[in-house]
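ARCHIVE CARD
Drawer: 12
Card no.: 0347
Subject: one protein chain, sequence and derived structure
Cross-reference: see card 0346
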Amino acid sequence: MNSDSGVTGTKLRATWLGEIDYGSALDLQRSLVDKRKSGSISDSVLFLEHRHVVTLGRRADDTHLVTERSKLLTAGVEIFETDRGGEATYHGPGQLVGYPIIDVRVAKLGPVTYVRILEKSIIETLVEYGIDAHLVDGETGVWVDGVPDEKRDIKRNPQGRKIAAIGVRISGGVTMHGFALNVSTDLSFFQHIIPCGMPDLPFTSIELESGEPADTRECAEIVAQKLSSNLDRELLWTERAELLN
């Protein structure tokens, strides 16, 4: 066992994977969850971008697809039924996806507290971009009110616009799946689904709210810092090759 990978959970190992398809990332998560359960690795978090994919959580089915499954597949959008919580969501280029592999028992965190930590870390990250974000009672994820701007043709509702979605699974005390934060995402893809079970839910992104270009990997570095601090862990970046070995 490496000195930085014991079950004491003193470190958070972060890895940038770049662009990766959903199925490969899911297989990798499952492998790391098994290793975390056995104590052979420390708490970890994968940062990446997915190719175009719609994922259906445990509370979703094809009724949550606005566009027919066959048409999405023809357009190059994969569809995965997955074991995370929640309904349907979209992942694609320009969206930062984070998959923490955390032993919540070691961290002494309940499921709700763990989700709140993810949300807090994202909100603190958005502050770095000059974006004021908030939570919505009874919903998971992170939301932005923003300033009305008819030229941007952004839908508005009483809750605001969603900038980050969260869906997790905890098995044997270890987490998988995680969050998706829109950085420079093509938001038009959300029109093909009923996202989070909420018809006409408006989405936004860091670039849209800040009016400035934003880099997904740089955003990952900020989220990693915030998450490690909120989990009271020392952040340790590892290379992709090291993770896969």
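Annotation on reverse: The helical segments are 22-38, 69-74, 111-127, 206-210, 216-230, 240-244. Residues 1-8, 146-156 have pLDDT under 50 and may be disordered.
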